[in-house]
Amino acid sequence: MRSALLVVGLMMAAPVMAADVGVSLNVGQPGFFGQINIGDVPQPPALVYSRPMVIHRDRAFDGQPMYLHVRPGYEKHWARHCAEYSACGRPVYFVRDDWYNREYVPRHRQDWDRNRHDHDHDRDHDHDRDHDRDHDHDHDNNH
Known about the structure:
The protein is mainly α. The chain has one domain. 46% of the residues lie in helices and 7% in strands. It is built from three helices and three strands, in the order H-E-E-H-E-H. The N terminus is likely disordered.
């Protein structure tokens, strides 16, 4: 009887486990929620509130406020959600979702594409160097 209940329980949990698929998003991608770096943004970000929000002021913290892109509505109930972002003791500015998607995402995508191209270009040069080294090695052995 116990084994039958165990089998039924596992069968019921299987669809839930199969649906639990992790998706990885990085800053600068649509659908990313978290801290963003506005240091390289040409114009100030559009903010939800003009003043930073702090839930529990941490007297030991004396750094700059953080800028967050959060799920719509989280800023209204920040005390419930600040722990998810490790930001309860820090001043937080919330960037607007439309600004993030219209301004921040395209800029980061351009930077990411440029960096990827530079990395691929450097890797191709390293391959050429290794290829040349292999050819030089063959010639040095007089084989």
